[in-house]
């Protein structure tokens, strides 16, 4: 099957010098909020990049909110190659397939529709390929799926220093601005204000990752431990640790609020109108979900978490075998396979066993 590629004319200029960095200017009035998922995806893609590939590029997905705030909530990697003439080839079929897959996955959860807001690249400085990739996203909208609309009239460019070449883990975002100081129109990249934003659910996952990281530092798992299948109860306990910690913090905050209200009612504390309005607004904004919809939501989330946990354990097993130098395909006994796939029996998962 032939695959379509998009070639970007990015021949190295002879006399042009690519600027290394840019100052933060007061225009345009856009702010970017970067969520943990795309940042983790970019770092994971850099670790898993093909041999001989220096950097990875990909597409940023998100939405516009609060007028001039761009929320970057997801991303995917674009497969590309660099020819001997210095031309960058992006596989369009892969780009379109990944975009459609993300749209289907996002459309099923009833959330905000994600659109293409820009692209990302790993590295510490811009190169001659930066303008070529940026121009591809801007000029070939039918393929890149970036459609300019206010306030986002230009795709944003996220640069992640994955190996800390600049001495720190730098994450910066830019937009292209047209300059009219010369006779011919020219463009420059200007840095935008960037905020690393984590929702309550994201913070639960980050705490769990940090806990596992600290545990692995103190007691590194052995290869034979990774090969042993864990019981369902252990998996549920591991996934519930982060939620339990979040619920405990919520309970502590509610106890503080309840103690303050009792103190005001008993005349021990002078009432604060601002605090009272805040509590009233918080209580009136809290909606009680229906029992059936809440149970269905919990059931779907539990099944997804079990699938992710089991697939992660299988991936750890594969890594352990690779480190031990074991080559060839892994043959799974039917009884072991049934045990590993037991929590997935309600999901539509196709598994090929030899």
UniProtKB/TrEMBL annotation:
Q: Where is the JAB1/MPN/MOV34 metalloenzyme domain?
A: 30-134
Q: Which domain of life is it from?
A: Eukaryota
One GO location term (cellular component): eukaryotic translation initiation factor 3 complex, eIF3m
EIF3F/CSN6-like C-terminal domain ranges (all copies): 242-323
Task: Cite the entry's keywords alphabetically.
Answer: Cytoplasm, Initiation factor, Protein biosynthesis
Show the GO MF annotations. metallopeptidase activity; translation initiation factor activity; translation initiation factor binding
Q: Which InterPro entries does the annotation name?
A: eIF3f (IPR027531), EIF3F/CSN6-like_C (IPR024969), JAMM/MPN+_dom (IPR000555)
What Pfam families does the annotation carry? JAB, MitMem_reg
Indicate what this protein is called per its UniProt record: Eukaryotic translation initiation factor 3 subunit 5, putative
What's the source species for this entry? Answer: Eimeria mitis
> What lineage, starting at the top, does this entry show?
Eukaryota, Sar, Alveolata, Apicomplexa, Conoidasida
